[in-house]
Amino acid sequence: SLYSVFTVLFTYFTSISTSQTTDCLHLREQCINAANGCESIWNVLEDICNISVLGNRCKAEDVIGCNRIIQVLADEYPEFKNCVCTTDDFCSIATLLGKQCSINQDNISTETKLQWSLSALSKQAYTANRTCLDVNKECVEDEVCNKQLSLYLKVCSVNKKCNMEECQEAIRSFYQNMPFEVAQMMTFCDCIQADESCHRAKELLHGKPCAVTAVPPPSCLNVIHMCEENELCRKKYTNFRSKCWRHVTKKCYDDEACLETLIKDDRPCSANADCKAAYISNWGTVLRVECTCQNLPPAEQSLCELFHHMLHSKSCFS
Q1: Tell me: the pLDDT tens digits for 196-254?
Q2: Which partner from 107, 177, 218, 275 sits 20 to 30 angstroms from 183, CA to CA?
Q3: GDNF/GAS1 domain location, by residue (predicted)?
Q4: Are 281 and 236 in contact (CB under 8 A)?
Q5: Which of 154, 136, 157 is nearest to 145 (CA)?
Q6: Was domain 220-312 assigned CATH 3.40.50?
């Protein structure tokens, strides 16, 4: 069956990455305790790659600087060479630090691009109205796509306690690391109401419930405010607005009477390839969290409904 094929591949890829990460974490401990100069390079690395004192999170904003110091570590202490990737400026240091570390990056690594270039799935032309079950099945049967899917599902699995932030990070990486055509297929797939298998596949591909369902659901105004307080999300939101909703941002962003006419008009967004790419880029941010406009004061209702429409209506792309 579809899921038994997936389980075999999932187990295989998980076992490889887990053993490698364990070895690298062991080397890290040896380095810190070595008293041979390794620990001083490691201290610089922690600083530049922005690893917390507790060693449980890191967000490397200076990706190039972070990779440069990792290159120094690998040159000076060759035992680390299998733990780090230093072939390009946007290489993840997740191998070195396991699940403790990730890099905010919108660039697909050279290695991932090469893998996708060999994938049959990435050569398919995008066609609208694909069912999510078909798209999910094709991803599972494609070796490159399945590998990416298994890494994402490992973090967002419904069988364990959900960590929304980690799951969002995983789904962001999942969509970033695939060609535009494949990302479109997954983002814009749909299901007929009665097809339960399809709806399950759609939830799987779209991060439900872990990455998108908050209890209680926030207001759409709060979602926008939360996004604007986060540098990564703010950049994506600004890009999304300019690529998809230029008439809103140019004409009447804060004019409520004007906004109401836009909502009633249901004016479509630009819906071109740039807009679709910007919409797909919102995966793994608070912008994809399901939001509501219920129980808001009347004065905030129109703006909230416009934001809900901008973030969640697919009418833009139909």
Answers
A1: 999 999 998 999 889 999 989 999 999 999 998 988 898 898 888 888 887 766 666 55
A2: 218
A3: 132-210, 220-316
A4: yes
A5: 136
A6: no
Domain borders along the chain are: 24-97, 105-209, 220-312
Alpha helix (H) residue ranges in 33-125: 38-48, 63-76, 94-97, 110-117
What confidence tier does 282 reach under pLDDT thresholds 50, 70, 90?
very high
Burial grade of 242 (CB within 10 A; 0-12, 13-18, 19 or more):
middle
Is the four-CA dihedral 28, 33, 38, 43 of positive or negative sign?
Answer: positive
Q: Per-residue b/e over 73-105, b at no fewer than 16 CB within 10 Å?
A: bbeebeebeebbbbeeebbbbbbbbbbbbbbeb
- What the block records as the tokens of 263 is 């909502």
Q: Which amino acid is at 172?
A: R
What SS3 class is residue 131? strand
Q: Do the first three CATH levels of 105-209 and 220-312 match, i.e. the same topology?
A: yes
Helix (H) or strand (E) holding 241: helix 231-244
